[in-house]
Fold each of these.
Amino acid sequence: MPEGPEIRRAADSLEAAIKGKPLTHVWFAFPQLKPFESQLVGQTVTRIETRGKA
């Protein structure tokens, strides 16, 4: 499993690609999150935050 630095680099790359742009498609694998998909389309990503395993 990737550790902190690798996850941070991935998050930084994602943030550079999508920050400030509206979401055009949202998909969640978990059924309990499915109701939020339509609510998130059109919203703008302002930042991506990583969380440690510990």
Amino acid sequence: MNVVVVGLGKIGLPLAVQYARSGATVTGLDVAPAVVESVNAAIEPFPGEHGLAEGLREVVPAGRLRATTDPAEAIPTADVVVVVVPLFVGQDGTPDFGWMDAASRSIGAHLRPGTLVAYETTLPVGTTRTRWAPMLEQASGLVEGRDFHVVFSPERVLTGRVFADLRRYPKLIGALSDAGCDRARVFYETVLQFDARDDLPRPNGVWDLGTAEAAEMAKLAETTYRDVNIALANEFAVFAGQNGIDVAKVIEACNSQPYSHIHQPGIAVGGHCIPVYPQLYLWNDPDATVVRAARRRNAAMPDHAVDLLERLHGDLAGQRVVVLGAAYRGGVKETAFSGVFGTVAALQARGASVTVTDPMFLDSELEHLGFAAYQHGDAVDAAIVQADHAEYRTMRDTALPGVRTVVDGRRVLDTSRWDCMVIAIGAPAGD
């Protein structure tokens, strides 16, 4: 089986390695020459994906994976084309299909009869049927469902643990024809292996949802659920903190009952998924008031954390405040929609002198992001924990000379190691 993976990013490249390890001959197609060169040298082009470096060293020298920037070289020989190209969302929630449009036209221009095209990028409902299939038909002169097949199969993995997630979660598919469904099922059952799970209503594996629209909605729904749930937890946290209640104890108590699954509150919801996909859902369903309100609540949490710091510490004008963590979550070197941006902006709006530190980023990388890098040993007046890096769990107040007030936006600090005032999101003042 010849497989082409279009887009060798943090999801696409691990997928290419997974397919190659499962016996397919894989060509990775990417627009970035540096990425292609790195892959062909069996060197991971980005850090942090568990098992990727080892996987590249296994499949590239064996000739099972190579990369190219030339679609004319890759697409005509493909039995299956898997598309994992980014889709961006504007400030107003409007999807920007530019990169995916270009990729689809390029695929169509070189498409041959018999090929299965699988889109894995998260999409608004209806996009596969009404945008990609017609675009591929127009560019190729072929007919979907007769000459080639299209399926939507959302990626459901987290960066840093892609290979483990591929085994753990059912692979959802939704094709535009019965024949396309059969092709997609055979493909994914060939290149994926699944862990046995007793907690699922049916065996783990490839699950056909019947239509591309159902598969598209499933990905939007599961991610939007998380955003709404976190927003509810944040609402509880704000109220609890204002009324002398520790929200962590409340959530722990609630979740001891099997019908309650309240998530954890925090300073921000970041990453490529949770802040973005609810906006794609809203693009389809603009009257979804619950979803819209949840997105507003989560987007406002950095401001809430800074308000909390100001209430405890006093006027922030001229105060030296360090933000701990630029990454959107602990252990991941990625700043997509990270709360660091809103936190720094809110501090600067109050006149604070703000620096940022993160164990995963060099000072030069932080400065490239527009931040002043904190220098170890410099005196500070206050701090805000923005990312739950493991390094912060054992951190002491001596690491921040002079610090008087800390807002722990992730409940990651061991307060016994800190002599100053430390307050967590959703904790009563004085804890």
